Amino acid sequence: MGFFDKIKQGLAKTRAAFTEMLNDVFDNADAIDDDFFDELEETLVLADLGMDTVNKLMKELRRRVETRGLTTTEHVKFNLKLILNDMLNVGKPELDLSTSPAVVLVIGVNGVGKTTTIGKIATRLVNEGKKVMMVAGDTFRAAAADQLEIWAGRSGASIVRQHEGADPAAVVFDGIQSAKAKGVDVILIDTAGRLHNKQNLMNELNKISRVVERELPDAAKEVLLVLDGTTGQNGLIQAKQFKEIAGVTAVAITKLDGTAKGGIVIAVSDALKIPVKFVGVGEKADDLMPFVAKDFVDALI
User: Fewer CB near the last or first residue (10 Å), C or N of the chain?
Assistant: First the structure.
């Protein structure tokens, strides 16, 4: 099953809610007038695109209607899809794994599916023939390293871990040394999702980043933020905070199959200008899929 079919299936809840509302707006429009635009705007806000993104989208859509003389709802819908595509295309769609090893630092609050996402990415990379190592840098949560070890066994990746409460930066240092010795292609680093406060979290991530930079100065590096798609605008707030703290370069959005509001994908891309590189639409390892903007918009509308 390709991305389009899988995302269409995974977004069943979102499609059922969003498409029905959208169709009501387009099918019942007597004219492309202010009433039509007001209804469309309300529908997009309800889909969790967020006010800033919706305002920008509506401004551009109105401009196109006026300058291109669009008079049919089909033409307006087509241009709506084009604008959404533009909002989603904000960077390279795939992780930068151009060096060996490459490093992916995975961040996000507890409960978003961070460790599971690492396991699923590891599975995908191992299936592509890459040698993968997981580093259990979340030493504050008792089950985190155990959960990662289970995924290592499932995926065929190796793992470096220490005891609960160990210094995360020291675990990362050990992992990098081991990866160098074993000729690993990709290092996936798990991190704590919540420390006592924002400053502690920033300090911890900075320590880890400094170790990576010192030990692998020429390696391709990604900071992948994992967000829970069901949290809607709270996810956007998290994304803004983590971008400020950790210099996020990529986003994975999980649990999209469990939400009737898929607009958070567009909101994050547009507000932060950070590409969404993976979306999760189910529990299985292959249900975390590389993101394809056009297919996502086509599946949604």
Answer: N
Q: Return the number of other C-beta atoms located less than 10 Å from residue 140's C-beta.
A: 18
Q: How long a stretch of residues is the chain?
A: 301
Note the pLDDT tens digit of each residue in 64-103. 999 999 889 999 999 999 999 999 999 888 999 999 999 9
53: CB partners within 8 A, 6+ apart: 87, 263, 266, 267, 270, 271
**From edge to edge, which strands make up the β-sheet containing 250-254?**
158-160, 132-136, 186-190, 102-107, 221-228, 250-254, 276-280, 288-290
Output the DSSP codes for 134-175.
EEE---SSHHHHHHHHHHHHHHT-EEE---TT--HHHHHHHH
pLDDT digits (tens, 9 = 90+) for 150-191: 999 999 999 999 988 899 999 999 999 999 999 999 999 999
Cα distances (angstroms) measured from residue 210 to each of 159, 204, 263, 267: 21, 10, 35, 31
Tens of pLDDT, residues 234-282: 888 888 888 888 889 999 998 887 665 677 888 889 988 999 999 888 7
Q: What is the spatial distance between Cα 167 and Cα 206, in angstroms, rounded to a whole number?
A: 13
What pTM value is reported for the model?
Answer: 0.90
SS3 state of residue 187: strand
Give the number of other CB atoms < 10 A from CB of residue 102. 21
Please state, in angstroms and rounded to a whole number, the distance separating the CA atoms of residues 241 and 239.
5
Distance CA 180, CA 133 (A): 10
For residue 185, count other CB atoms closer than 10 A to its CB. Answer: 18
Q: Which residue has the tokens 């390696």?
A: 219
